[in-house]
Amino acid sequence: MKRLNTILNTIIGAFVGVFIGHGVYVVWNFKTRPELYAMQSAPWYTSIFVYGAFTIVVLLICFVIKAIIKHKQKKK
């Protein structure tokens, strides 16, 4: 169970890091080249919302698994 908890912590950290990195990159890219985003029909921050939603789903799944593990360990 300890190994699974470590793997889940790594997944959580990786997804949060990717989300932050992607957000910083999109903001930087928009500030340096706003004309590229002017051609799109969607706002420039749409991809940040998509990554955020996906990250939240993955984090919720990981936290539910961690809660189940914690509950099983308390029973023992």
Topology:
Blueprint: H1 2-32, H2 34-38, H3 46-75
Structural key phrases:
76 residues, mainly alpha, 3 helices, elongated
Walkthrough of the structure:
This protein has 76 residues and is mostly helical. It has one domain. The protein is built from 3 helices and no strands.
Number of domains: 1
How does the helix and strand content classify structurally? mainly alpha
Could you tell me the number of beta strands?
A: 0
Biggest sheet descriptor: none
Low-confidence stretches: none
Task: Give a quick precis of the structure.
It is built from three helices and no strands. Helix 1 packs antiparallel against helix 3 (46-75). It has helices spanning 2-32, 34-38, 46-75.
